[in-house]
Amino acid sequence: MSQRNLIASAVVGAIALGSSAVVSADPLNELHKEEAKIHAAAAKSQKKINNLYEQSQELFIEYRGVVDETENLKVYNDYVSTLVADQQRSIDSLQTQIDGIDGVKRGVVPLMFRMIDSLEKFIDLDIPINLNERKERVERLRDIMANSNVTTSEQFRQVIEAYQIENAYGGTIDAYQGKLDYQGTVITVEFFNLGRTALLALSLDQKSAWVWDNDARAWEELGAEFINPVVIAVRMANKLLPADLLKLPIKAAE
């Protein structure tokens, strides 16, 4: 071969080798690019996964909170249901009592009228201790029974209270000032009662004394021997003297 041909062959060979290096370098670059894209996509996916995990954890915590609250509400609702049931039983009981009030009143009101009548008769037959006060109490009871503003329970309470006051007269020793009608003459006296055992009267000048005769329903004048014991009895009732034994005109029980 000539020298020119050798040079041409060498140039062609060099070009061929250069073309081969270029061709083999292009796929490597493409691989690097694809690998970079894959890493970027993987990082992006991992970021999404991390976000989704955080969201799932938040949702799980929220779910547990809802479950706990639901359980608490169920327990509370069961408790409230028990209270409601108990209140309903109380309402039913009250309603039953209310329904029976009219029947009770129909029985109690006539009873109270009979009690007041009996009390009035008893006072008329009893020894006249605080007579005016006791008769006024009976009249107040009758006024109360005619007053629509006073409840049945209050009416009954006052009737019972009147009976309790009457009962107390039998166990008290008392002295008080009042008027005595003796044979048509009204005299201011000091009354003394030993329960219902004896009722005595002493004139304010302490010169006369009387005893109530419940059988005769009249006052009987006492002799001079009883005046001093009656004076002492009045003083003892007024807490001016200590209690002591006295000789008083008391009718023996039959």
TrEMBL record:
Species of origin: Paraglaciecola psychrophila 170
Signal sequence coordinates: 1-25
Source organism superkingdom: Bacteria
Annotated InterPro entries: UCP028069
Entry keyword set: Signal
The protein's name in its UniProt record: TonB system biopolymer transport component
Pfam families referenced in this protein's UniProt entry, alphabetically: DUF3450 (PF11932)
